[in-house]
Specification:
Distance between the termini: 33 Å
Radius of gyration: 20 Å
Oligomer: single chain
Shape: elongated
Strand content: 25-35%
Structural class: alpha+beta
Helix content: 10-25%
Number of helices: 6
Order of helices and strands: HEEHEEHEEHHHEEE
Number of strands: 9
Length: 184
């Protein structure tokens, strides 16, 4: 049972914007306190002596919460997520363990470790490029690297698998716990 209470639940603002992921236990507390409503429920339920309550999979806060603009930390995981786990040179999609990070302008040439200079890259392309720029190696980037923004997150959400259930469009991206939920 403890395992079920740790499952991720998508938290939506009152305006149906995704704002967080929390544990099912926390989501259930928010619903029972009247702070949120369950928009979607999972097949799992918890039982008390007198009742059974289905665990929510998506909840919506009943009052709008202003969320300050947040920037994503520069990390390997976020670079891979931004680039959709796809080598930016050969465009093959691979598991994270088979990808490396490549400095477009090599560090030996004053290339910085910044959003605009790091891309996901497979081992083969990284070895082929070596200590050169893509132009010098005769390689072309699929996309110019940019910071991971809210627009990037929403674009990823739209791009990956959608399922419609009871007039609500849901998209879950398992690779990085990014979730999208919108009224259709």
């Amino acid at each position: 049972m403890a395992d079920r209470l740790q499952k991720p639940v998508l938290v939506l603002n009152a305006s149906f914007e995704p704002i967080n992921i929390c544990a099912a236990r926390r989501a259930l507390v928010l619903v029972l306190k009247g702070v949120a409503s369950a928009e979607e429920e999972s097949a799992s339920a918890i039982h008390s002596a007198r009742a059974a309550v289905r665990l929510p999979s998506v909840i919506r806060l009943l009052e709008y919460r202003r969320i300050p603009h947040q920037t994503r930390a520069l990390s390997r995981k976020n670079i891979l997520m931004r680039d959709r786990y796809t080598c930016q040179y050969c465009q093959r999609t691979l598991p994270s363990g088979e990808l490396t990070l490549d400095h477009v302008v090599p560090r030996s040439r004053a290339g910085e470790s910044a959003w605009e200079n790091l891309v996901a890259c497979c081992h083969h392309c990284n070895n082929r490029k070596g200590n050169r720029t893509p132009e010098e190696a005769g390689m072309r980037l699929a996309r110019q690297p940019r910071p991971f923004s809210l627009h990037t997150s929403r674009h990823l959400m739209r791009m990956l698998g959608k399922a419609t259930h009871s007039g609500v469009s849901i998209c879950f991206i398992r690779c990085g716990s990014v979730h999208h939920y919108a009224r259709s």
